[in-house]
Amino acid sequence: MILDQPIKRWFINKKGQDSNFKSFLKSISWRIVGTLDTMVISYFVTGELMMAISIGSIEVITKIALYYLHERAWEAATKLEKDEPTEKFA
Fold first, then answer.
1. Percentages helix, strand, coil for the chain, rounded to the nearest 5?
2. For residue 12, what are the β-bridge partners?
3. Which residues in the chain land under pLDDT 50?
4. Sequence-distant contacts of 2-5: CB under 8 A, at least 24 apart
């Protein structure tokens, strides 16, 4: 595919790690799924559609930020140090 390599550069940095942009897009897509879930559960609990939408719209913003920070923390925690060997031992 012609656009394959340029698009991959958006998602993986020069070190072969997930880019900040990829983490951001993952956080957005996950929040869409999570917010829909929150709205459905809120509707079943309250029985009110407007209340469910209100709850979902409030939590979407806070959880995008929390997921992004969580993702970056995992990336930092799992990266190899300069002096750390890269070969695998049995």
1. 70, 0, 25
2. 18
3. none
4. none
